[in-house]
């Protein structure tokens, strides 16, 4: 398996920061009451991961070990500040909804963790791919959880899409259940915990089935070779 395929597999599935490492759960659970909120925070996280991984990898030979964590935080904070100001300028209503969780990206352990574990030890190109795939994996969970909560909570998908895509996207909303009274718990923090738990359980079930299937194939191959 090539390096880039391995990085893609790690970020999207095997080492997904939200489902396996269980990092960055505070914003993940707090803002995912709609798909659009999850997508907005996810895109900001992707940009931060890619930019911070790239810069830290580029500077890795010039950062002393004693100061690496403060430097990592300074780099990440600078990138997040640019993203925060950009969102405030161009997506102000969405920025107001996401609130404190945009600047809190600085303290997201997934971002600092990738800087320390990968970007500070590898060339720029693989570090950029690592950041991008980890961000995509994190964003996929944000969007999936936001879609689940929005669907169960208010019977729609892609509500308030105009906050991200402009007035032309006002018709993007999909009403799944007409005259739906809603389910408040899905929109509250307990609904986020339950939804994330179900997604993690689904991933673990799929992994267990794949491992059992691979074990059966390996056993059959061994028996055939010794027959």
UniProtKB/TrEMBL annotation:
<dbReference type="Pfam" id="PF02508">
    <property type="entry name" value="Rnf-Nqr"/>
</dbReference>
<dbReference type="InterPro" id="IPR003667">
    <property type="entry name" value="NqrDE/RnfAE"/>
</dbReference>
<keyword id="KW-0472">Membrane</keyword>
<feature type="transmembrane region" description="Helical">
    <location>
        <begin position="182"/>
        <end position="202"/>
    </location>
</feature>
<feature type="transmembrane region" description="Helical">
    <location>
        <begin position="127"/>
        <end position="148"/>
    </location>
</feature>
<keyword id="KW-1278">Translocase</keyword>
<keyword id="KW-1133">Transmembrane helix</keyword>
<comment type="function">
    <text>Part of a membrane-bound complex that couples electron transfer with translocation of ions across the membrane.</text>
</comment>
<keyword id="KW-0997">Cell inner membrane</keyword>
<protein>
    <recommendedName>
        <fullName>Ion-translocating oxidoreductase complex subunit E</fullName>
        <ecNumber>7.-.-.-</ecNumber>
    </recommendedName>
</protein>
<keyword id="KW-0812">Transmembrane</keyword>
<dbReference type="InterPro" id="IPR010968">
    <property type="entry name" value="RnfE"/>
</dbReference>
<keyword id="KW-0249">Electron transport</keyword>
<dbReference type="GO" id="GO:0005886">
    <property type="term" value="C:plasma membrane"/>
</dbReference>
<comment type="subunit">
    <text>The complex is composed of six subunits: RnfA, RnfB, RnfC, RnfD, RnfE and RnfG.</text>
</comment>
<comment type="similarity">
    <text>Belongs to the NqrDE/RnfAE family.</text>
</comment>
<feature type="transmembrane region" description="Helical">
    <location>
        <begin position="96"/>
        <end position="115"/>
    </location>
</feature>
<feature type="transmembrane region" description="Helical">
    <location>
        <begin position="71"/>
        <end position="90"/>
    </location>
</feature>
<keyword id="KW-1003">Cell membrane</keyword>
<keyword id="KW-0813">Transport</keyword>
<feature type="transmembrane region" description="Helical">
    <location>
        <begin position="40"/>
        <end position="59"/>
    </location>
</feature>
<dbReference type="GO" id="GO:0022900">
    <property type="term" value="P:electron transport chain"/>
</dbReference>
<dbReference type="GO" id="GO:0012505">
    <property type="term" value="C:endomembrane system"/>
</dbReference>
């Amino acid at each position: 398996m090539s390096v880039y395929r391995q990085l893609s597999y790690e970020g999207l599935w095997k080492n997904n920061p939200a489902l396996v490492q269980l990092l960055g759960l505070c914003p993940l659970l707090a803002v995912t009451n709609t798909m659009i909120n999850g997508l907005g925070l996810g895109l900001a996280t992707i940009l931060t991961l890619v930019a911070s991984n790239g810069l830290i990898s580029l500077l890795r030979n010039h950062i002393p070990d004693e100061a690496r964590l403060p430097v990592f935080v300074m780099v990440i904070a600078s990138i997040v500040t640019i993203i925060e100001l950009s969102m405030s300028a161009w997506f102000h209503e969405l920025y107001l909804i996401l609130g404190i969780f945009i600047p809190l990206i600085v303290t997201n352990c997934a971002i600092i963790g990738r800087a320390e574990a990968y970007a500070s030890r590898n060339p720029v190109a693989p570090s950029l791919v690592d950041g991008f795939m980890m961000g995509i994996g994190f964003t996929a969970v944000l969007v999936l959880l936001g879609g689940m909560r929005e669907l169960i909570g208010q019977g729609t998908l892609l509500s308030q899409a105009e906050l991200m895509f402009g007035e032309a996207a006002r018709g993007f909303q999909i009403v799944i259940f007409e005259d739906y009274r809603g389910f408040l718990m899905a929109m509250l923090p307990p609904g986020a915990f339950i939804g994330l738990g179900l997604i993690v359980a689904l991933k673990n079930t799929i992994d267990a089935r794949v491992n059992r299937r691979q074990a059966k194939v390996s056993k059959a191959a061994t028996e055939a070779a010794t027959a």
